[in-house]
């Protein structure tokens, strides 16, 4: 199996990833991931939308599995097989805001429980937190927690990175932004 990072948005597919997709005869991915690589898929290839992520361990050895962003950042890199990296939302966010990735700690709450104490710990260490969010993320509660612990920080909401409708909104923990689909946050001394 080959796990291919397709990038955070359009035009972020690496050449190595494009070659792997073009050589594939069997591809699995989300609708968004498939859409990001569709011009590289050959007509002889069978394409299937992933409907159950728990069954991915049982795919055939010749399958190419598409992972949005980079498979090793909250992606499908946990699967057995070769991993071809992709351009992650972390990379794009840091580039857009000109923040060194060496100063950033990634934390995902996408499909996971929000751990305000872990985010607080990283901010206390002087790090900027890159937060992968989803529609369940309670940003208001997180910001209240941070403020109550003396951690007033700036927030950058980045949504639809790489897409025409890309948006960057700057605020802070006193007035947190409203999360949107395909969004991530940088929280810290921006």
Question: Strand tally, please?
Answer: 10
Strand percentage lies at 15-25%
Q: Largest beta sheet: what is the strand line-up?
A: 3-2-4-1-5
Q: Strand count, sense and closure of the main sheet? A: 5 strands, parallel
Shape: elongated
CATH-level-4 superfamily name of the largest domain: Tetrapyrrole methylase, C-terminal domain
Low-confidence stretches: none
Task: Indicate the CATH class of the largest domain.
Answer: Alpha Beta
Computed structural class: alpha/beta
Approximate helicity band: 10-25%
Overall tally of structural domains: 2
Please compute the radius of gyration using only Cα atoms. 18 Å
* Secondary-structure arrangement, i.e. CATH architecture of the largest domain: 2-Layer Sandwich
Task: Furnish the topology, listing elements before pairings.
Blueprint: E1 2-5, H1 15-23, E2 26-29, H2 31-37, E3 46-49, E4 64-67, E5 82-84, H3 89-97, E6 104-108, H4 116-124, E7 128-132, H5 139-148, E8 154-159, E9 167-172, E10 183-188
Parallel strand pairs: 1-4, 1-5, 2-3, 2-4, 6-7
Antiparallel strand pairs: 7-10, 8-9, 8-10
């Amino acid at each position: 199996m080959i796990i291919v990072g397709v990038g955070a948005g359009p035009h972020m597919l690496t050449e190595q990833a494009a070659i792997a997709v073009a050589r594939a005869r069997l591809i699995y991915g989300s609708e968004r991931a498939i859409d990001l690589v569709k011009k590289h898929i050959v007509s002889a290839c069978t394409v299937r939308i992933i409907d159950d992520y728990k069954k991915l361990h049982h795919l055939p050895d010749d399958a190419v599995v598409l992972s949005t962003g980079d498979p090793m950042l909250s992606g499908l890199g946990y699967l057995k097989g070769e991993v071809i990296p992709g351009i992650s939302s972390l990379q794009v966010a840091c580039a857009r805001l000109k923040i060194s990735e060496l100063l950033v700690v990634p934390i995902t709450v996408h499909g996971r429980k929000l751990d305000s104490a872990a985010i607080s710990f990283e901010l206390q260490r002087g790090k900027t937190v890159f937060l992968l969010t989803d529609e369940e993320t309670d940003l208001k509660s997180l910001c209240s927690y941070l403020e109550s612990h003396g951690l007033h920080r700036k927030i950058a909401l980045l949504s639809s990175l790489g897409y025409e409708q890309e948006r960057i909104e700057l605020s802070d923990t006193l007035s947190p932004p409203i999360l949107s689909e395909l969004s991530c946050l940088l929280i810290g001394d921006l």
